[in-house]
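User: Run a structure prediction on this.
Assistant: Running it now.
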Amino acid sequence: MEEEIRALEQNGTWELVDLPPSKKPIGCRWVYKIKHKADGTIERYKARLVAKGYNQVLGIDYLDTFSPVAKVTTIRTLLAVAAAKGWHLHQMDVSNAFLHGDLDEEVYMQLPPGLSGKRNGEFTKGEGDSFVALLVYVDDILVASTDLGIIQDIKNQLNSSFKIKDLGPLKYFLGLEVARQNKGMAICQRKYALELLKDTGFTDCKPVHSPIVPSHKLNKLGGKPIEDNTQYRKIVGKLLYLTITRPDICFATQQLSQFLDCPTDLHMQAAHRVLRYIKGAPGQGLLFPAVSDLKMKAFSDSDWGACVDTRRSIIGLCVFIGNALVSWKSKKQVTVSKSSSEAEYRALVATTCEVQWLSYLLTELGIDHNGPTAIYCDSKSAIAIAENPVFHERTKHIELDCHLIREKLNKGVIKLFHVGSE
């Protein structure tokens, strides 16, 4: 606590003043956390001072909020590129992340307990051997470069502005266990998965070979409602975080996420099956190979009318950079598709948007992405719709924004290929 207070005072986070008569201060509290290493041993004890911002009113006390948080896909992409390019990866931790941004509004806060009354993102720079990438997730920082000297210079510059902890080469970042070998870089969440099994009482359960039974369709009316849905929500929330390195449970978790408001005993049984599946291989993860051409390719699919309650289709996509899987998604479409071709076409659109965004990210990381990206789809009719310049009767009901895939085709950003689903 003393270290946190000292860091806040050194950064000039606040100024001690008398409260004006018309102002109402917000409260604050201490949040304590034990930081563990990947092997479960205690690394350090951490204290955070948190302002009770939920007492403020949007539009009166503040207009917007911002926190530099990188997308998980960005993290995976950076690791995949670093593994292929042989970049050094180091991590840092900001000693305190309280109000490092600029405030345009006046905020009055009560004195923190224990203090006496004394007066998104991702950044890149350079090119070639001098290239460096900096990834920020609130107060956790990851820096990648081919030159260790540049990494050390960045550490010194950051430490001169913010007090940081140098955690050395990347090993454990945001719950991700990173192991670098000659074949490449392996990431997993084994510690997190074991903690999940322990918290839910499934440490000694019998494992199964699939996270979900394909023939079972979950719906809102099936089963008996659970009186207390807290446990169900906790399981689903933790499973969502586990999908960072486990694409094999992505679809099952998406199915379970639809019933958070009123889960039934059947939904809980399905959630328990996912836990039993995790028990079979808690250390399952991803491998980013050291040898890669860094060429992007994607796969797109759709399950027409899969949702029993709404008859909306479920899309699925995955994007590879070389042989490294960096992005995947399983999501219910926002509207009902009148045909399987339309459902597949909408899945292609979602895949195209993801490919376009990743191409921008690769450009920022200094990767030349020449030529169109191959997108594989098992629907010949959806490919025909995308490549057909004639706006005929069968595609009038598809929104105009969905036809951006045709625009990307004409610009040579993507190229569609048919692949069998057998």
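Residues 210 and 308 are 21 Å apart (CA to CA).
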